[in-house]
Design a protein that fits this description.
CATH class: Mainly Alpha
CATH topology: Growth Hormone, Chain: A
Order of helices and strands: HHHHHHHHHH
Number of strands: 0
CATH architecture: Up-down Bundle
Helix content: over 70%
Number of helices: 10
CATH superfamily: MFS general substrate transporter like domains
Structural class: mainly alpha
Length: about 230
Amino acid sequence: WRGPFLGVAILMVIAFIGLTILMPSSQTVQTNKKKTSLADPFRALKHRSLLVLGIAAALYNFGFFTLLAYSPFVLGLDEHGLGFVFLGWGILLAITSVFMAPRLQQRFGTVTSMCMMLFLFALVLLAMGIWTSTQWVVIAAVIFAGAMLGNNNTLITTAVMNASPVERSTASAAYSFLRFLGGAIAPYAAGKLSEIYNSSIPFYVGAGFVFLSVLFIWLNQSHIRHVDEAEGAH
């Protein structure tokens, strides 16, 4: 188990060196950014559009982290098997986030595309709950979920950046604060639900939260519809 952690640490060192060498220094880049405080991300949440997207992300992240943290316990695979499953998940996530999400956004719009991807992800979690004891179904569902999450991560991040007039770094901080609340609660909740009830319940609950995120976005779309207009203006 030490190998993966050492490998990730090495990759992070390489990334740090790359950023240090390749990115321009702050002295050579002229910016007019205002100074920000720790309270600014919380103040930014007064913008309804940012608040809506943050709450929606917290709801869908509950399902996301249920899959990420809990599904390995029901897969019944060794370390290498888990590695291959999440390799497939990661490849689909990377490909769709770069190549598929922009096309969906262009064709259907950001909000509609988000709802489509989240609805499909909720169905994937529902299938994992129904067929928890069928290994190949859970494996296929985890891998396929990578496509849904890759698309949605790009779509919702784009929406957040265009949702409000605040600095992008401030908007990102406010959004991340809300969305990772769902990610923080889900792993613990999934384990307790499995312990109290059965191994399928965490997936059902995760699916329910993702369905709620779709409903929440749809009911509040009047507050976030402008994100496509802002994107088109860039």
